[in-house]
Design brief:
Blueprint: E1 2-11, E2 21-27, E3 47-49, H1 51-59, E4 65-69, H2 78-88, E5 92-97, E6 111-116, E7 140-145, H3 148-160, E8 168-173, H4 180-189, E9 195-197, H5 202-205
Parallel strand pairs: 2-4, 4-5, 5-6, 6-7, 7-8, 8-9
Antiparallel strand pairs: 1-2, 1-3
Length: about 210
């Protein structure tokens, strides 16, 4: 059984899949407490559901792209079986994970979006850097940047672990804290041509704190 916070159908707001219709499976619980978290409601709220019943529910949306997110989905060990089953059913499967728990046992058909925590998140010490060794070329590493310190730290991490040679690199701003134009200017000034800048599209389409989108 899994503890589910919500299952909904919307458009993908981030990653290289931004703009595509997607079914989201949001799991309950998180082992992190980021300073800017926008899904605190997923820390504890949820209901029990079997993997079979999850699969039955998402079939009604007739959408091939599915993201498993949270909270932190890897807190629940059953999430590994869920992603495996989704892949076996022929879905394109995305995983959004905070980067503090091991990814080595995740089905190789799953595209991992790994969120490495910057200093302003207050969770930087939780980053599990061994995960970088298990990234595939189709995976993505995301940095959510709220300050110049975050930005400089991010560049150091990219260089140290040679991330630009491993997978896609995504830069986002902490919504409401750093203006997007400021981060874009830094990227251009430093000629970071391996970076994909992104906005949280759903926060511009709907109200920023709206659930289920």
């Amino acid at each position: 059984m899994l503890k589910i916070n919500e299952i909904y159908y919307s458009v993908q707001g981030e990653s290289t899949f931004a703009g595509r219709p997607c079914v989201f499976i949001r799991l309950t619980f998180c082992n992190l407490r980021c300073s800017y978290c926008d899904t605190e409601y997923a820390f504890y709220e949820g209901y029990d559901k079997s993997i079979d019943s999850v699969l039955d529910e998402i079939k009604k949306y007739n959408c091939n792209l599915v993201e498993v997110t949270g909270g932190e989905p890897l807190v629940q060990k059953e999430s590994l079986e869920l992603m495996k089953r989704l892949a076996e059913e022929g879905y394109e499967v995305l995983l959004e994970t905070g980067g503090s728990l091991p990814i080595k046992d995740i089905d190789k058909r799953v595209r991992i979006i790994l969120d490495l925590k910057c200093p302003s998140s207050k969770m930087m010490k939780k980053n599990l850097y061994e995960n970088i060794d298990h990234l595939k070329p189709v995976d993505e590493v995301k940095f959510v940047i709220g300050t110049r310190e975050d930005y400089e730290w991010t560049k150091e991490i990219i260089n140290k672990y040679e991330l630009s040679n491993k997978c896609e690199i995504l830069f986002s701003v902490v919504f409401g804290k750093l203006e997007p134009v400021q981060l874009v200017n830094w990227i251009i000034e430093d000629n970071l041509n391996f970076v994909r800048f992104q906005l949280q599209m759903h926060k511009f389409i709907w109200e920023p704190d709206k659930k289920g989108v």
